[in-house]
Amino acid sequence: MKKMMREAIREALAEEMRRDEKIFLIGEDIGHYGGTLQITVGLFDEFGGERVLDTPISENAITGAAIGAAMMGMRPVLELMFADFLPLASDQIINNAAKMCYSYNGQMKVPMVIRAPFGAGMRSGMHHCQNLESSFANIPGLKMVMPSNAYDAKGLLKAAIRDDDPVIFFEHKMLYGTRNDVPEDDYIVPIGKADIKREGKDITIVAWGVMVPKALNAAATLEKEGINAEVIDLRSLKPIDEETITNSVIKTSRLLIVHEACLSGGLGGEIAAIAAKNAFGYLDAPIERIGAADTPVPFSPTLEDAFIPNEDRIVETVRKMF
Amino acid sequence: MKGLQKEDYLKMFRQLFLTRHTEQTMVDYHRHTPITELPHSSIGQEAISVGTCFGLTKEDQIVPSLRTRGAFLAKGVSSNSMMAGAFGKDIPETRGKNTSHHMGSTEVGVISGTGVVGAHLPVAVGVALAAKLMKKDYITVAYFGDGATNRGDFHESLNLASIWDLPVVFVCENNLYALSTPVECNMKIKDIATRASSYGIPGVIVDGNNVLEVYKAAEEAYDRARKGQGPTLIECKTYRWRGHSERDPRDARPKEEIEAWKEKCPVKQFRAYLLSEGIASEEEIQEIEVSVKAEVANAIKFAEECPYPPSDILATNVYSTEEAM
């Protein structure tokens, strides 16, 4: 049955909460109001105020509170209103959540999920649209996932909730309304596994989040020109599935990485390094990266559209690689 | 004091003396043979850890600051682990992965702290939140200094704990200085306890050098917490005898001020109290002191002999499952 990504996320939350009473939601305006982006609508009615906790505007404290509760055996799912608020919570995430397991040498775990709606395209300006994944990529102890569609969103969120380590779950706001098949049966999409969304033999395009549908559209255009592109949806940003990337590049001999995060310091560099190391002898062209402009996310439509990588850029870049 | 038996008083004295002697021994040792951890001694502040931990059960959770050595010991962390942990040795609680003053213990209910002043307070709120959500009856006690109360973490945490009536007690050790700056440079108010009024919770001021006063204030706060009446802020007025750490090259605090506070030594005061009230004899007290000295000497020996962790455990337990990375 076709469902929107926002419904898939809501379903994952509800189903997991029915399965395990240790799971609770915590965040700003997520109760009656259903969240600023309306993801938790209806959950307060079903589960009540003790399992869907509305909080004051205190991102650092509510993140710490989720950590403390997780340490005592609960399984909190924290909603940050926008991923742009991750910097406010980052001390708790980086210095507490990510370090507890190591501090106790494995005798403590922090099973929590941080849901972080993110991404450009909604004309919401520089403080509500950022892609901040690379800021957390260098923090051992954290995991990060990012679905590109409803099916993966539900499965990845369930996997994140069942995981015993802190996981940041990035939800691209422009994908909430996109639909695909979401089965009724319980399933998970494992953390750490990329997904080949389109098989091809001429070039590997690694993308994540909203760039995956764009890469798939670009691949369809390129097919007409005789270029058969393989599109890998990274899905798990930390850890990265090195094996799937490496095998694909060995097969295709070309690699393009596409992300919506700004180019400099983006995860594309990490993936390029993985491929360069593992498949150096197989490469027939320099590795290319596409990312957003190295600017804050601008507000006005003409500027924001120029900021975000689009299908045309993907197609043009691929053409130049042959 | 009502409800306390002779053995309780003696136990309190033992904890006070153990904390003092552990800290002093560590500091002295560090001066001739630097240990791995830079000591941040709590000498002068021992009554706060001891008085607040005395009424806690094993199930209760403490969330220590960087300067609450006595709380670790009073909660049940062994002297051996404390000392060897500070030496950076291979102890079961951390295997050398964290310092002794930020380590946690699942065995005795110590939540691992952080090197970010005050950033453990939101975690303490969460530990207390879990008790409420899981309907468990443990309480949570969080320690911090005066400096931490200027951080947003403190204010956000007290607010959150108060609106949810959480079973958590906030123990402020106001030793009159943050790292180098005196408290009056950092806040306009005279008493940190008044900050509680912003959150609609009781704010209590006690003589932090008087273990019985601390104990009494803590018991009242714990009683409230256990009855579901919410958090309390206890401000313990005290003083640290030594610099912020053992690497404090410009400790500019007036000598007379330090000396005046040494006159109010929490250990000496309580010792004199036990004698003057006829609770214990000089012999009984000396017996405790001898036994503590032996315990700490053993801890030093243990720490010296304990191996460092093997380097091959470096990348273990970053995640709860080893295959994660």
Number of domains of chain B: 1
Number of strands of chain A: 14
What average pLDDT do the residues of chain A reach? 98
Cα-atom radius of gyration of chain A: 19 Å
Q: Uncertain spans of chain A, ≥5 residues at pLDDT below 50?
A: none
Q: What percentage of amino acids of chain A are in beta strands?
A: 15-25%
Which structural class do the helices and strands of chain B define?
Answer: alpha/beta
CATH homologous superfamily placement of the largest domain in chain A = Thiamin diphosphate (ThDP)-binding fold, Pyr/PP domains
Roughly how much helix do the residues of chain B carry, as a percent range? 40-55%
CATH superfamily of chain B: Thiamin diphosphate (ThDP)-binding fold, Pyr/PP domains
- Portion of residues in beta strands of chain B equals 5-15%
Summarize the structure.
Chain A has 322 residues and is of the alpha/beta class. Helix content of chain A is 37%, strand content 20%.
Task: Give a verbal description of the structure.
By secondary structure, chain A is an alpha/beta fold. Chain A has two domains: 2-181, Thiamin diphosphate (ThDP)-binding fold, Pyr/PP domains (Rossmann fold, 3-Layer(aba) Sandwich), CATH 3.40.50.970; 195-320, Rossmann fold (3-Layer(aba) Sandwich), CATH 3.40.50.920. Helices cover 37% and strands 20% of the residues of chain A. The termini of chain A are far apart. The model of chain A has no long low-confidence stretch (mean pLDDT 98). Chain B has 325 residues and is an alpha/beta fold. Chain B has a single domain (6-243, 252-324), classed as 3-Layer(aba) Sandwich (Rossmann fold), CATH 3.40.50. Chain B is 43% helix and 8% strand. Chain B has eleven helices and five strands. Chain B has helices at 6-32, 46-53, 69-75, 79-86, 121-134, 152-163, 183-186, 211-226, 255-262, 266-276, 282-305; strands at residues 61-63, 140-145, 168-174, 203-207, 232-237. In chain B, strands 1-2-3-5-4 form a five-stranded parallel β-sheet, sandwiched between helices. The model of chain B has no long low-confidence stretch (mean pLDDT 96). At the A-B interface, α3, α4 and α5 of A face α5 and α6 of B.
